[in-house]
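User: Please fill in residues for this 383-position structure.
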């Protein structure tokens, strides 16, 4: 039986979370026209907004959980409807009621892991710095130039640990005075907030802020666009303002300042994928490309759906933890586009994108056709 939340509760929750602009929607359908879901199945953000207007949203189904918060629909909306905020508000209602369809029930274990261990992967907190063993990476102390915050996936995921290692090696090569907090830090909280669990987000945020302040952190270097977005744009809600820089920006600066020298050729065709939370949400498009162009022998090629129109990998909005059928994965389309563009390497700068692309590369039988690299891995191979 469908669970339909009472009209007043839906309206009150959406208003309380900045999503009352849904009333401005005049059903033009531009959101549906650009939504990546409509490349793989039928989905209507317009319909969700319309149902919310009349308080008729059904919270037991999958639809309120489909949005990847990629930012395409607010980018196109002529009426300023805050689709992401409205959608997250609906998820808050479902979370409060404990109503989760089978495709998102993993969120319970994710929330439990974040609460108990500070990460979504059910890994031990005391192993958060294991990726740095043997690299002579120092614990962060007050006065250091940079706190490097790898993020959960780079600390624990076997594939993505390679990105953290590449980053540390680059920073050492450039003579950067940096350190890590290891087991002291928590997940940034961005993705769990987008699933509607505001209280858990606040808990993670307050704990991180306390650790940062207690350790004298002023400048934070991150590898994940999701960490970047949260530290830069959402942590100030808690009356703090750390300087935050994404690794793609920092690499660009290090090379231009002469602190990092590119000495080797990289004779391959590379297509660069713009992560949603680096590009659309934060306007960082040029630095990654300009950094790659600094490498001798590297040929940068562009795919369709790039820059402001970049195709979402499917991992945002907490969907990195949810089930997506094989025939409904946006990342499959991206692999096909990269191969069609003649790229030997699909490069990006986001752990969620890398995770999804690696899986799609195997699912599409393209393991011999293309490799997936973070831009830090390419730079590390070129210095």
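Assistant: Residues filled in for all 383 positions:
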């Amino acid at each position: 039986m469908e669970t339909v939340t009472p009209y007043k509760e839906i309206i009150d929750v959406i208003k309380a979370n900045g999503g009352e602009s849904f009333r401005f929607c005049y059903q033009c359908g531009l959101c549906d026209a650009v939504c990546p879901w409509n490349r793989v199945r039928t989905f209507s953000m317009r319909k969700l907004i319309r149902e919310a207007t009349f308080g008729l949203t059904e919270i037991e189904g999958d639809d309120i959980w489909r949005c990847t918060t990629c930012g395409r629909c607010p980018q196109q909306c002529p009426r300023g409807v805050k689709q992401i905020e409205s959608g997250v508000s609906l998820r808050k209602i479902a979370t409060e009621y404990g109503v989760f369809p089978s495709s998102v029930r993993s969120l319970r274990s994710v929330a439990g892991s974040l609460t108990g261990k500070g990460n979504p992967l059910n890994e031990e907190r005391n192993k958060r710095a294991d990726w740095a063993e043997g690299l002579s990476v120092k614990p962060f102390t007050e006065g250091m130039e940079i706190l490097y915050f790898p993020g959960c996936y780079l600390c624990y995921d076997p594939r993505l640990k390679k990105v953290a290692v590449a980053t540390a090696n680059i920073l050492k090569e450039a003579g950067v005075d940096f350190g890590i907090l290891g087991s002291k830090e928590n997940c940034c909280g961005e993705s769990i907030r987008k699933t509607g669990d505001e209280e858990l987000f606040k808990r993670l945020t307050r704990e991180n802020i306390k650790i940062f302040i207690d350790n004298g952190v002023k400048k934070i270097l991150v590898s994940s666009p999701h960490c970047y977005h949260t530290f830069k744009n959402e942590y100030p809600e808690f009356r703090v303002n750390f300087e935050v820089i994404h690794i793609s920006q920092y690499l660009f600066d290090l090379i231009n300042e002469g602190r990092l020298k590119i000495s080797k050729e990289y004779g391959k065709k590379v297509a660069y994928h713009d992560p949603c939370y680096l590009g659309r949400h934060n306007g960082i498009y040029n630095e990654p490309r300009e950094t790659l162009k600094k490498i001798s022998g590297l040929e940068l090629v562009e795919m369709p759906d790039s820059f402001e129109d970049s195709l979402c990998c499917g991992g945002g909005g907490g969907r990195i933890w949810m089930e997506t059928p094989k025939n409904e994965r946006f990342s499959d389309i991206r692999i096909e586009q990269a191969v069609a563009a003649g790229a030997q390497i699909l490069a990006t700068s986001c752990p969620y994108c890398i995770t999804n692309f690696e899986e799609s590369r195997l699912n599409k039988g393209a393991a011999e056709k293309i490799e997936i690299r973070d831009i830090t891995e390419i730079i590390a191979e070129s210095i």
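For context: The chain has a mean pLDDT of 93.
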